[in-house]
């Protein structure tokens, strides 16, 4: 009897705490009505970030138009990786690379008037490679890229 009472009390307290802090599930209703139908524009339509964003929009019941029309806003998406090295070029030492990922999103109306100015999110990782590792094919780079996309 006390176990059942304790479970009910804990469930009730959890429910009250979640509603008290303003928590609510994200739904398509949380988007403005003007964004329920948009044209999705990107330089890399088959990039991993771009495809993940498309899936998220569709899951939120956003209709993605195949071509721009006269009423729907345009969602512009760009995402790119870059890297630099801060270590010496000597092949006998470990190399430290800084991998950067930038994703920029903006929303324009059909007359190219900005509804949402470009918003950029940047993520970076430092990767140390031994002298016998090649940057382009090491698994560390792919793992870092996946983590930065998820962020």
Radius of gyration: 23 Å
Query: What string gives the helices and strands in order?
Result: HEHEEEEH
Low-confidence stretches: none
What is the approximate shape?
Answer: flat
**Widest sheet, order of strands:** 2-1-3-4-5
Number of strands: 5
| Terminal residue distance | 45 Å
What structural class do helix, strand and pairing data support? alpha/beta
Number of helices: 3
Mean pLDDT: 80
Helix content: 25-40%
* Biggest pleated-sheet summary: 5 strands, mixed
What amount of the residues lies in strands? Answer: 25-35%
Explain what this protein looks like in three dimensions.
There is one protein chain. The protein has 151 residues and is an alpha/beta fold. The protein contains 3 helices and 5 strands; from the N terminus they run αβαββββα. The protein has helices at 2-20, 48-59, 139-150; strands at 37-42, 63-65, 74-85, 95-108, 114-129. The chain has a 5-stranded mixed sheet with strand order 2-1-3-4-5, with helices on one face.
């Amino acid at each position: 009897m006390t176990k059942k009472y304790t479970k009910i009390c804990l469930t009730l307290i959890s429910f009250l705490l979640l509603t008290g802090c303003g928590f609510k599930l994200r739904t398509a209703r949380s988007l403005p009505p003007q964004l329920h139908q948009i044209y999705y524009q990107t330089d890399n339509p088959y990039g991993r970030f771009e495809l993940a964003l498309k899936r998220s929009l569709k899951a939120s019941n956003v209709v993605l138009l195949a071509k721009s029309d006269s009423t729907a806003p345009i969602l512009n998406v760009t995402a790119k990786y870059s890297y630099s090295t801060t270590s010496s070029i000597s092949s006998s030492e470990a190399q430290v690379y800084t991998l950067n990922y930038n994703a920029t999103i903006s929303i324009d109306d059909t007359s190219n008037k900005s509804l949402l100015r470009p918003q950029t999110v940047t993520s970076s990782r430092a990767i140390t490679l031994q002298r016998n590792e090649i940057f382009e094919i090491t698994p560390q780079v792919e793992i870092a890229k996946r983590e930065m996309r998820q962020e």
